[in-house]
Design brief:
Length: 262
């Protein structure tokens, strides 16, 4: 009888642990590069708090590369949560691919300028300084996501230099612009500050002047076909929480969730 009591006691300790392991969820997440630095800092904390596991991949919010979030959803990849540019998320909501009531703004980021480490920092403090810098540059690179689309379609025109730079400016698909600048393949690079900061081999000159700046909002949403809605909602809440705000700021973005005022 004594041995039976011991065995019963051990089972009482082990079975809850097994039940907890069995209930752990794997969430499949795709995030754009703009939120990647903050997400990488926050993901381990979420896993520790919940016991759930995050299977994460990266892809731009728009564009035609296979890694882009719209392309992944179009071919039916099993994804639970997406983190991406807000207006691109809006398109997916209209298509019924992301649940409308799950959309949660997380952060906003401005466009910054980078040069290769060790090279002189050009003048971008004013609109005229930026204009002269771009006219003098031998090569210019920008991303294939929201910031690059704005630069190509609007900013160059607002600066009155679209024709002058068209042959030396190029959009970079599926790779951080900073990596291209670090290799010396572009003299000037434009991308979200949060995407430039983690890449070695560059120096960040600064943000664009306010007159031509574009702030991009990054939001999270739950994919309509997700089978892990409860865990997905928990992740989205955490990414927008006061606990997440310091990591968001450290990555170069301004928090927009519950921790925005802290």
């Amino acid at each position: 009888m004594k041995r039976l009591h011991v065995v019963s006691g051990l089972l009482g300790l082990v079975l809850p642990l097994l039940a907890g392991a069995a209930s752990a969820t794997e969430l499949r997440v795709v995030s754009s590069g703009g939120f990647a630095a903050a997400y990488r800092a926050l993901a381990p904390d979420f896993e520790r708090r919940t016991g759930d596991k995050l299977a994460t991949e990266w892809g731009p919010s728009m564009g035609h590369t296979p890694q882009a979030v719209p392309a992944r959803l179009a071919r039916g990849e099993p994804i639970d949560v997406v983190v991406m540019v807000d207006y691109a998320l809006d398109d997916l909501i209209k298509q019924g691919k992301v649940e409308a009531d799950s959309r949660t703004p997380l952060a906003r980021s401005g466009i910054a300028v980078a040069v290769r480490a060790g090279t002189p920092k050009p003048d971008i403090a004013t609109v005229e300084g930026l204009r002269k810098t771009l006219l003098a540059a031998k090569s210019i690179a920008y991303s294939d996501s929201a910031s690059g689309v704005y630069i190509e379609r609007e900013m160059f025109k607002r600066l009155g230099i679209a024709d002058e730079v068209k042959d030396k400016a190029r959009m970079i698909p599926a790779e951080p612009v900073a990596a291209v600048v670090a290799r010396g393949e572009a003299e000037i690079g434009f991308q979200q500050l949060s995407e430039l900061k983690p890449v070695p081999g560059i120096e960040i000159v600064g943000l664009l002047p306010q007159e031509v700046q574009l702030y991009t909002v990054f939001s999270a949403g739950i994919v309509a076909g997700s089978r892990e809605k409860e865990a997905a909602r928990a992740l989205v809440r955490f990414l927008a929480s006061p606990e997440a705000a310091p990591a968001v700021r450290e990555s170069g973005m301004e928090p927009l969730g519950a921790g925005a005022a802290r």
